[in-house]
């Protein structure tokens, strides 16, 4: 087994990516970090000192690096707007305050490719090996989210990314697995894997609703056509009902279970948005919203969906739906951009 082919492929990819412009210095640092690790492995390979028994692990590291590079390439300013990532990073910090985590996206040509990939155990395994060989370790761990390319600048559709971030939080704290452990003590569960799948979807829906109210429900309702349970997902109606119960503080044993488990890991399920009256939104005047805090920032997606679904207003009556959709996306983008720009100025003053 040889590493030569993989090394040359990665070398070429680094050459193509060296001029990338990232939204923050951490991504630039990560690029430099994985390049140094790659260069060290390349040197070891060229000098013939890699043991044959170690080649499979080095191959895993190289494959991890090229995958990380792919996500970095798709997280540049000209591919994924920083506004989307910045909103998600604020939500992430509420749950995990770790500057060594980086949210990254990979674009797919498949419209249905919307998911997240978690790699903590594998990440730790690779770093243990690198340390044993006295090589530099991978500093940043990417939270990898796959996003359909067609949605990369669609702010109304990116409400689904809050849901995907919820899956990451679930996996980090083993929330769904803890629910399974709790329920199985008193109830016979016919298919534990399917139960875990459904529980994970419910938690991700709740996680998103904390920040964007029922905006994710709106997107879910428009995108899905089935209303029966599947092996991987509860029915759409069940998911929408759960979010509605949470937002309206109705009794729910499922929500109570989540709250109990989340509190055990030192966190809390709660409303993390601040409502603004949608009927008074600046969007009806074709100007961005003025956002005063992070909670209003997250609610901007709910405002966008509220205006999009409003067929009674005369503001957009003469606009084709396509133009209305594009305008709302532009207004959401400008609202978020202005908020972060002003926040940056205030932090420097």
Automatic annotation (TrEMBL):
Database matches in InterPro entries: MetalloPept_cat_dom_sf
Protein name: Uncharacterized protein
Superkingdom of origin: Bacteria
A GO term, aspect molecular function: metallopeptidase activity
Organism: Chryseobacterium polytrichastri
